[in-house]
Write a sequence for this structure.
């Protein structure tokens, strides 16, 4: 999102001019700092050439950027109608069904992304622990189900 995108999102909202000026100044300064950080990172003095934090306008934008999935606009619309928790479930279901995935994505990948996006919506994109354990737990459950099915086949 560019600076102009951020400012254009609030231009139609009725507010005193000093609010708009305040937000415009914050936005301008934020993007200036971000540009300086990008320039510093481009020297590769740091081990990574990218700036880790991403500038997000709202929850939908933050979740979309966290998971690099184009869901910001649909999530905004869902959030207008439903609460955060129900919106998380609705969007997670759509992701699990493949609505926002590549055609060759596996069911495991779709489910993993669905859980991660749903959790990001509920926690407002704030994580205090790594989410790597989610997929491990899912894989463990799949293995258990497969073992039970195998045992049932052997009994028959």
């Amino acid at each position: 999102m560019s600076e102009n995108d951020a400012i254009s999102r609030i231009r139609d909202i009725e507010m005193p001019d000093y609010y708009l000026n305040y937000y415009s100044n914050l936005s301008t300064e934020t993007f200036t700092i971000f540009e300086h950080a990008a320039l510093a990172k481009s020297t590769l003095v740091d081990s990574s050439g990218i700036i880790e934090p991403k500038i997000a306008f709202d929850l939908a934008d933050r979740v979309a950027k966290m998971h690099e999935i184009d869901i910001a606009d649909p999530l905004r619309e869902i959030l207008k109608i439903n609460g955060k928790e129900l919106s998380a479930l609705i969007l997670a279901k759509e992701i699990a069904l493949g609505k926002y995935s590549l055609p060759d994505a596996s069911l495991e990948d779709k489910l993993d992304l669905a859980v991660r996006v749903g959790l990001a919506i509920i926690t407002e994109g704030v994580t205090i622990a790594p989410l790597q354990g989610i997929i491990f737990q899912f894989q463990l459950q799949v293995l258990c189900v497969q073992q039970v099915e195998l045992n049932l086949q052997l009994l028959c």
